[in-house]
Fold these 3 entries.
Entry 1:
Amino acid sequence: MEEDGQEDISQTSEPNLLEIVPEVPKRALEIFARLWQLETWLRRMVYVELRALKGDDWAQDLPPLSKSFDADKALRHMPTPEMNVLSYSTLTKLMEAIGKHWTCFECYFPPKDILDAKLKEVFQIRNRVAHFRLGHSDDLPRLLQFLRDVDLGFWNFCTSYNDARPILPQSRDKVTEHLLPMDPLPWGEIRPHEWAQVGFVDKSLVIGVTVNVQRRPWVEWSHVDGEPGFLYDVRLHAQDGRQFNYKRLLEDTKAVHPHIVHILLDTLGNSVRLTIPAKVGSQKVIELVERFVEVGRYNVSRQIAPSARSAEKIATEWPEYVVGPKNPLSFLDPDMPCSFFNV
């Protein structure tokens, strides 16, 4: 099967790495893969919660970009997309950030004293595999047990990111009220205190805008505008059979990307989801959404026909804040129980 002019290589057999390099212990590869999982998701967790807590000042208390960043970017013939300070932070620095803002993270982890004790083993296991030592036969089982201990916490983190809800009535919130004319199927009060989306989708809009809000698990529902712990969860819909040109949309909005937590691309190419810290204030949120709508009108077409593959590829070419449709941050919600780390 071919898609977008590319040959489907999903059935192509790849050589077994252990056969090519037989002296590498299988256990070492498994440990490395699990540590990759753990640290990648720790970075995502710390990034999201600090953005929700502090808005644009999220990295204020983190160490600045390190020499590792400078050395990486100096290799201009081998460019990499990572730009987030957390992508160049050590596991120790990640855990220091979590400890410093423990109230934002305690809902995801075992009690702090137990977590610290378990992490001492994880740190040592990491050092062993990073410095190409054989390690102990219990390294992998202990690492897997740690992943089991935090598995539900990471599931809660990820699913809470896809558990947004509308603010009703819309007049309660400046962002929701201001952007309501752009909503192609707004909520309406059908009976006192009972709301529903009824009627027909307004296809006269080139770009429709739906505004929801997600609450991070460490805060209670309250006033949202300007408050820590909330993210506006905004979806832009290309209306009437149109699709976004993701590449051009991203390039043309690049100047405002630092104010946005994530730009999430869709499988079908007909929507873009933005998550924006409520901490930056309603006026800033409105400006950001309106900028995307303005640019989006010139970057939609009925002839693009993108695919999940192309959207995923585009996401990998951009910094960490652009998320493809295969990333669980894009789709995993509370109605999808699973083992997060498959352990």
Note: Residues 6 and 309 are 10 Å apart (CA to CA).
Entry 2:
Amino acid sequence: MTFQTGHVGLNVSDLDASKDFYLKVFGFEIFGESGEADRRYAFLGLDGKLLLTLWQQSEGRFATGTPGLHHLSFQVADIEAVRRAETVIRELGATLHHDGVAAHREGASSGGVFFEDPDGIRLEIFSPTGADTSPAPTPDAPTCGFF
């Protein structure tokens, strides 16, 4: 058997706020949605491919101290795409970790931005190259594992 990730489904507390956030930061398109009061959801993606589903069926903030999702990571083509995303994240006032672009490890070429969505779900947008001029927050540990 071979596997590849399909789409990721996230529980959110406010579908409108989350949908707006993901559309602005990632440039996703809406593939489908429901506005029924007790069955609200949105299907988001790019270039005809479903990538993310949002389900309004939770309350509160993402619990980082319990087993489950650590963070959700998206790869982009280059470090300039990461920097464009960082600009939007800052404009939206979202929580941004490591004060912007950070290398995955000291001296690594890969790296990105580490931030949170409106529900506190930890996210990463990274490029495989171009981050080597950005400092790593912790020289001897993977940046993506500690935010």
Note: The mean pLDDT is 95.
Entry 3:
Amino acid sequence: MKMYKKILVAIDGSQSSYNALDAALKLAKQFDSELYLVSVVNTANLPMNVGVSYAPGLTKDLEDSARKDIKKATDIVSQTDVPYRAVLLDGEPREELTKFPKEEGIDLIVMGKTGTSAFTRFFVGSVTRYVSEHTDINLLVVA
């Protein structure tokens, strides 16, 4: 069985993403892996009006929300002896969750089946489905 040295968990604040974290923690303990807790601030699809972005206040709200989600995840993981890194990315979530794992040499991506956080309102299509179709890294989808 392949060893997973680096496991990425996509955290978006949804229950599904915390279910994914639970599954990833079990795998990390089994394979002595490092967890990457990743949240993406979706700055790519913010509304624009006549070239003026509404982004400053909205971006801060999205960043605060993502930080809170990551903090909740790190609080859970820090109660274990599993090593982890918390990473906050900016951009289009589907692209970032496809690009970042490749750049970091991630062995397994663990994602929730559905996202329901505040910033999923900006998603066009399913992030999980997109990642599954555009990555060559093993992907575990958790309900």
Note: The chain has a mean pLDDT of 86.
